[in-house]
From TrEMBL:
Residues 1-28 are annotated as: Disordered. Residues 1-27 have a biased composition (Low complexity). Belongs to the D-isomer specific 2-hydroxyacid dehydrogenase family. GO terms for cellular component: cytosol. The lineage of its organism: Eukaryota, Fungi, Dikarya, Basidiomycota, Agaricomycotina. This is Oxidoreductase. Residues 150-322 form the D-isomer specific 2-hydroxyacid dehydrogenase NAD-binding domain. Keywords: NAD, Oxidoreductase. GO terms for molecular function: glyoxylate reductase (NADPH) activity; hydroxypyruvate reductase [NAD(P)H] activity; NAD binding. The keyword NAD applies. It comes from Kwoniella pini CBS 10737.
Length: 363
């Protein structure tokens, strides 16, 4: 999250949008209008939202189909003060949130809430330019992604994928090297909500040597977790776990140059974004043995996966399902709706992303 706790505190005392300024409907003057992709989150928050707001819904369709639907909704039933996306893994859903899609909602809409922790496909700069807040829904998906990350970490350290290939090939107990998470140095890049939970889960099962790198030392990190520069983490870690957001600084972060700084036989786990890892460079590092094994839940050009990764038995491949998305919908979407409820009640959502940017832009 890009905003600091102090920025959030000051913004709560002076909300970007006060409820008295929210547009009211002529038929229901006490309720502001809210627009949703989808209709319900299937949580307790659905009825609460309808108690405090007039809720309008859109079908879950892709970007091109959605553009005229939003425009027509605003013209015929708007304006709307908040907009949220309710996502299910089986649904079509716009791949990007930008002015081309959301433009008709401005300038009246003062809150946009997206499903999930990441927002690299959201034009937060444009949203900020309209004087609106963007909020993500990181808590539930973050917990579940961390749980999936733990599964991948333990599996790849024990070499379960090559062991599986070995058994299927009729070879019993092939000589596959394993690592002990109790004594190995596990380096986590990105100690946000997901990285923190990963570190906490590892600590709970006895991992004693956890190091991490974030933009700055985390005030919520346990005392035994060691903060390192990136170069220090590369040099020390037996296992590197990527939990960082995709930004201009992290795109292509793991590449030929960084592998040269790592230990021989390092293990790589990625549950962040695929573009953080240059896949061709990873294939070469695996072929050379510099990287002993990798476990990947995300891919540089997903759903396409590099053929060199597909054929390598030392790579565990997971199709962006670390948070178990088939059952993730209700808790994640409930967090979207809860953000909107909090905004309608107080003028401030639970998990705003761009408060600092709004302040810098003079809002």
């Amino acid at each position: 999250m890009s905003s600091s706790s102090s920025a959030q505190t000051s913004s709560r005392s002076s909300p970007t949008t006060s409820i008295s300024s929210l547009p009211r409907t002529s038929t229901c003057p006490s309720k502001p209008k809210v627009l949703l992709f989808g209709d319900r989150s299937q949580t307790k928050y659905d009825d609460i939202l309808r108690d405090v707001a007039e809720v309008h819904c859109l079908p879950r369709v892709g970007y091109q189909e959605m553009v005229p639907l939003i425009k027509a909704k605003v013209e015929n039933e708007g304006p709307f003060v908040a907009f949220g996306g309710l996502f299910l893994i089986t649904d079509n859903f716009p791949g990007k949130w930008d002015e081309g899609l959301l433009g008709p909602l401005a300038p009246h809409c003062k809150l946009f809430v997206g499903p999930g922790a990441g927002y690299d496909k959201v034009d937060v700069d444009w949203i900020t330019s309209t004087g609106a807040m963007y909020a993500n829904s990181p808590t539930q998906v973050g917990k579940r992604t961390a749980d999936g990350a733990l599964m991948l970490i333990l599996s790849v350290m024990r070499g379960m994928t090559p062991q599986d290939h070995s058994v299927r090939a009729g070879k019993w107990r092939s000589p596959i090297k394993t690592l002990d998470w109790h004594t190995s140095t596990i380096g986590i890049i990105g100690l946000g909500s997901i990285g923190t939970r990963v570190a906490t889960l590892l600590t709970s099962i006895g991992a004693e040597r956890i190091i991490y790198h974030s933009r700055r030392p985390s005030p919520t990190a346990q005392s035994q977790w060691g903060y390192r520069s990136l170069d220090e983490l590369y040099m020390e870690a037996d296992v590197i776990v990527l939990c960082c957001p995709l930004t201009k600084d992290t795109r292509g972060l793991i590449n030929k140059e960084t592998y040269n700084k790592m230990k021989d036989g390092v293990i790589l786990v990625n549950v962040s974004r695929g573009e953080v890892v240059l896949e061709q460079d990873l294939v070469e590092a695996l072929d050379s043995g510099k990287v002993m094994r990798a476990a990947l839940d995300v891919f540089e050009h997903e759903p396409t996966v590099h053929p060199g990764l597909l054929k390598n038995p030392n790579v565990t491949l997971s199709p962006h399902v670390a948070p178990a998305p088939d059952s993730m919908g209700p808790p994640m979407n409930g967090e979207v709706v809860e953000n909107i409820i909090k905004f309608v009640d107080t003028g401030m959502p639970l998990t705003p992303v761009n408060l600092n940017q709004l302040k810098e832009a003079g809002f």
